[in-house]
Amino acid sequence: MGPRPGNPTRRDWIKTSVAVAGGAVAMPWIVPASALGRQEGTKAASERITLGVIGFGPRCTYVMKAMLPMADPHFVAICDVQKNRREAGKALVDEHYGNTDCTTTREFEELLARDDIDAMLIATGDRWHGPASILAAKAGKDVYSEKPCALTIEVAQKLDDTIRETGRVFQAGTQRRSVANFQAAVALARGGKLGKLKELHASVYTPTLDNTWLPGQPTPPVDVVDWDRWLGPAPWRPYNENYVQGRWRGQWDFDSGARLLDWAAHTLDLCQQAKGADDTMPVSYEPAEKAIIARYADGVPIILDFLETPFGEREGWITELGTCPVRFVGEDGWVETGDNGGIVVEPESLRAELPDVSAAPQVGLDVGAHAQDFFDAIRSRGTTNANSRIMRHSHIACHAAALAWVLGRTLTLDPDREEFVDDAEANGLRSRPERQPYVI
């Protein structure tokens, strides 16, 4: 099926990608004060970081409401393929700044070509996170990408490679790397207070594998919903309004790793951090009845525990600690924490070893400290606490676990080559075909 009129051909897509790649800037662009709508307590125009948004929905709304009051950022443009979401994003920005300056578009190439935009907040569906981040980095923009940051192992590799080649600042939206109670639990494990680590526990959704299509409906006008762009690199299928309203989750074509990465991108990532394994990943992945067991080369397992009811009673977990719980178990004790901010330790004497988190009473969804880490890194041209290299290893481990579940067998991964050992079928699933003209 060829591209519809008004949509880019492959040649247009490549020309645009190459053209914007030459626009890299070393430091944040300086914008006039009139464009910033400066308010009491904000930084001067020359000190602020201008942002564009690709993909405005419920999660993006949450993140932007945290970022908008901060001193560093100034949002100037919203891109979404749905008209109602573009307008909602603009309304949020304009209301905050008290003007009507925020621009909108359904084609994010327009944002990437603007030299008055320093960084991108990318909060699309999973299928677009990686490609949009790659193109943004090539265009000289720093990137904050919601997770999962990559739909496949190959995209995770390409994204990390691009970030390092371009020298851009990247922050994966795994904000629990910046939330105090999770980091306090990590500190116990990393500091040896639990003794030698015996096992790590990461809560995850029960995986799903859905290849069904919803019934086709008439495709709306392109300005209302640009269905071709919504699909992007994913395989074509008929339009159904439920997809654009969020019912794409769990669909193999659109979702990351049979939905495993919804939570594993956070929880397995925290286990990696607690193990001190950010530069590597487990080497084996064994599907079990209600879990996937991943093991490092030294034998220490991460147990990815399927939660039948993630928001209610959860067998084997302390429900009062909230969603996305993790547990780190050592020879001398264990610690468990979750999104509600509480921490449980055993023995109780370990509580005296916990860092003081009273000054940062956050919950797991909070992005304030994570966003500030991103903006600080933009200014210093340093690295973030969820940089592309960290993302690469934890995302590949998540995808390897998902593929073990999909294939129903134990997979062995070479963490250096990032290939499965003696398994051509699994290696073939490290990537997926990308639809023209959205091939990165």
Features:
34% helix; 15 strands; 440 residues; globular; 14 helices; alpha/beta; disordered N terminus; 9-stranded mixed sheet; Rossmann fold
In what order do the strands lie side by side in the largest sheet?
13-12-11-7-10-9-8-14-15
**Major beta-sheet overview:** 9 strands, mixed
What's the mean pLDDT score? 90
Structural class: alpha/beta
Percent helix range: 25-40%
SSE series: HHEHEHEHEHEHEHEHHHEEEEEEHHEEH
How does this structure look, described?
With 440 residues, the chain is an alpha/beta fold. The protein has a domain at 10-176: Rossmann fold. Helix content is 34%, strand content 16%. The strands form two sheets. Strands 13-12-11-7-10-9-8-14-15 form a nine-stranded mixed β-sheet. The protein has a six-stranded parallel β-sheet with strand order 3-2-1-4-5-6, with helices on both faces. Strand 1, helix 3 and strand 2 (73-79) form a beta-alpha-beta unit. The longest helix is centred in the last third of the chain and has 20 residues, at 388-407. The chain is globular and about 60 Å long. Residues 1-40 have low confidence and may be disordered.
Quick summary of this structure?
With 440 residues, this protein is an alpha/beta fold.
List the helices and strands and how they pair.
Elements: H1 10-21, H2 33-36, E1 49-54, H3 58-67, E2 73-79, H4 83-97, E3 103-105, H5 109-112, E4 119-122, H6 126-138, E5 142-145, H7 153-166, E6 170-172, H8 180-190, E7 197-205, H9 227-231, H10 241-247, H11 261-275, E8 284-287, E9 291-295, E10 301-307, E11 326-330, E12 333-337, E13 343-346, H12 368-380, H13 388-407, E14 411-414, E15 419-420, H14 424-428
Parallel strand pairs: 1-2, 1-4, 2-3, 4-5, 5-6, 7-10
Antiparallel strand pairs: 7-11, 8-9, 8-14, 9-10, 11-12, 12-13, 14-15
Helix pairs in contact: 1-6, 6-7, 7-13, 8-11, 11-13
